[in-house]
Amino acid sequence: MTDDFFSNPASWWQSAQGVHREEIRLDFETEFYLTHVIVVFKSPRPAAMVLERSQDYGQTWRPYKYFSVNCTATFGLPDDGTEEGSLCTSRYSDVAPCTRGE
């Protein structure tokens, strides 16, 4: 994607209505060290979401971070608020705010 929400908030990607599972793939064509990933939602944030990464050009995928209101119930993982270093967090999974939630 070439859109930058912060400089052009009138442009966004949207899934089809009623779709429960969606996939977005970004090919950076080289190896990167990620320090921050910011996803800004135009609608309420999903109840659960997984960011995955591939180091072999999409042949295999590994979880990078899980997001859920309830990490244990959704993914069977502890929340990083209670267990430091956990792959799951509930910090960005609340339904509020309805728009511009990160």
TrEMBL record:
Task: Tell me which InterPro entries the record gives.
Answer: Galactose-bd-like_sf, Laminin/Netrin_ECM, Laminin_N
UniProt keyword NAD, yes or no: no
Where the record annotates domain Laminin N-terminal, the positions are: 1-102
GO CC terms in record: laminin complex
A single Pfam family, by name?
Answer: Laminin_N
Keywords per UniProt: Disulfide bond, Laminin EGF-like domain
Listed GO biological process terms: animal organ morphogenesis; axon guidance; basement membrane assembly; cell migration; substrate adhesion-dependent cell spreading; tissue development
The molecule here is called: Laminin N-terminal domain-containing protein
Species: Phrynocephalus forsythii
